[in-house]
Amino acid sequence: MPIQLLDPQVISRIAAGEVIERPASVVKELVENALDAGATQISVEIQGGGLELIRVSDNGCGIPPADLELAFQRHATSKIMRFEDMFSLHSLGFRGEALPSIAAVAEVEITSCPANATEGGRLHMRDGKTLKKSALGRAPGTTISAVRLFQSVPARLKFLKSRPTEAAHIANVISQYALAYPEVKFSLVMDSKSSLTTPGSGKLSDAIIQVYGLEVARNMLDIGGQGWNADAAIKVSGMVSSPAISRSTGNYVSLFVNRRWITSRRLTYAVEEAYHGLLMTGKHPIAVINIEVAPTDVDVNIHPTKSEVKFKDESAVFGAVQRAVRQALVNMTPVSSIAEVSAPYQTTKQSALFSHHPPTTRQPVAEPLKSSASSETQPLATPKVTLPALRLLGQIRNSYIVAEGPDGLYLIDQHAAHERILFEKLSREKTLDKLEVQALLSPEPFDVTPAQASILAQHVDDLAEMGFLLESFGTSTYLARTVPAMLADKNWKAMLSELLESGDRERSQFMERLMALTACHSAVRFGQTLGEDEMREMLRQLEQVDLPNSCPHGRPTLICLTHEQLGKEFKRS
Ligand code: ADP
Ligand code: MG
């Protein structure tokens, strides 16, 4: 074939492929345009997974009738004028590609009327060409309908998933933007059935109720906002789930940069990392996180769909996200309630558990950072938990401590609770450089496999910092000169083996695991008889830790059966 310039229609379809991958891409672009137009109300209607019909209506600024055709030309935009404007971008769009791309792969009708205009316009397009143009009276705003999507691109049609799957992608797009813009009223109707409506109240918790349900909304914690690095270059705000709830996939972490929905494996990881030690393995949090940075510090022009961004200083953003989430968790880890472990209590309000705590005279270990002014944006509040004073009742099965608190009966897993206490003791001592170390009378040999040896070699200094002074003695043996005092009379060799089994880790993860295992191997065992004084001491210490409600592995340390729940069980209320 000789070299020749492609027909403009072919060019448009090829280019459209980059922006419009599937029906949900059309919805995303149209919703972004509506948001850029300042709409406070956005209604989306779809049929047949978006393949038969996608219609997005807004009450935004509208397009003057004379500009309607121009809006459908490639690289026509009202959002930037010069390339430099990209660095002060305050809109979601800027490439001027969405409308022409949609018109290249679907039949499109647009009606629009600017707020101050006496008359609006209507335009009907097929194959990127105008079929009909007319004047029209309508309320201010814009409505764009796309029908017969991809009919002209059979190859694309073949790659699409089933209609329900495409519909699910569309619902996800609307959910994400509903979470990013709680002040906008969204409605989504799929195959004539209403599937989502948000009140547009401006409160994130209200949007979360609609997207994830009341139970999730109740268990969400505020992050960032007032009081958190208010003048920092990177501001992180939003809500994250308390460790009381979780999901089995990582798809519930929603990230927005300057309210643009983005995907980022690294930042998702930052969020998940903040839950380290709080969620069981395989469990993932729910999060809605907006990161605000100066437009100069982020490049949004690295992907045609604008779903990935590049930060000037990615590790700073990573750190800011992780700290904000962690802070919220440390401030407010709730106590697990019986409702989570036993089915009959499912309807019990999680928050009811917390409302009974009388003010305790003990100083909370960590004071919440949040100022009281921010309580407006908090959903159904989950205050910081300090354990109330507990009265020891006894021990059952040599495994659980039974105690009475002002709000009900407490059952405490003695091993998990002790682990938590020791873990925090270790990290405190380490920070203060006051770790108690036991010197061994004669050096103890410790044998390692080749795989363990290579991991140990990388972390000899880290181990020394935690009290394990180990010297290499031949290829497969180390000599221990000191061990952490906590482990002196315990099986520290088993602990070290377990530690070195777990493969390569970054230093901070290695240290955390080292501390968790040290705590685990030093803690009283499940099935060990405890004296009353020992148990009282344990309760007293547990009341003082930062996160009394879960062990370093993320298992709950205690559960509370409230008076209310007891009353219900005995049919007294
Ligand atoms: P971009 O959003 O990158 O500017 P688009 O192709 O999505 O490019 O839209 C082209 C132009 O059409 C926009 O810049 C805007 O001026 C106008 N436009 C599109 N949708 C709307 C809408 N819903 N309300 C008002 N103006 C719109
Ligand atoms: Mg656009």
Molecular structure report:
With 573 residues, the protein is an alpha+beta fold. The chain has 17 helices and 23 strands. Strands 5-4-3-6-2-1-7-8 form an eight-stranded mixed β-sheet, covered by helices on one side. A five-stranded mixed β-sheet has the order 9-10-13-11-12, sandwiched between helices. The chain has a five-stranded mixed β-sheet with strand order 16-23-19-18-17. Helix 9 runs parallel beside helix 10, helix 12 crosses helix 15 and helix 14 packs antiparallel against helix 15. The protein starts with 7 loop residues before the first helix and ends with a helix. Bound molecules: adenosine-5'-diphosphate (ADP) and magnesium ion. The site of magnesium ion has 5 residues, from helix 2. Adenosine-5'-diphosphate binds next to helix 2 and helix 4.
Describe this protein with a few key phrases.
5-stranded mixed beta sheet, 8-stranded mixed beta sheet, alpha+beta, binds adenosine-5'-diphosphate, binds magnesium ion
Describe the SSE topology.
Blueprint: H1 8-19, H2 23-36, E1 41-47, E2 53-58, H3 68-71, H4 98-105, E3 107-113, E4 120-126, E5 129-136, E6 141-147, H5 154-159, H6 163-180, E7 185-190, E8 193-197, H7 204-212, H8 214-218, E9 220-224, E10 235-241, E11 253-257, E12 260-262, H9 265-274, E13 287-292, E14 298-299, E15 310-311, H10 314-332, E16 336-337, H11 338-341, E17 391-396, E18 400-405, E19 408-413, H12 414-431, E20 437-447, H13 450-465, E21 469-472, E22 477-484, H14 492-501, H15 507-522, H16 532-542, E23 558-562, H17 563-569
Parallel strand pairs: 1-7, 11-13, 16-23
Antiparallel strand pairs: 1-2, 2-6, 3-4, 3-6, 4-5, 7-8, 9-10, 10-13, 11-12, 14-15, 17-18, 18-19, 19-23, 20-22, 21-22
Helix pairs in contact: 1-4, 2-6, 6-7, 9-10, 12-15, 14-15
The protein binds adenosine-5'-diphosphate and magnesium ion.
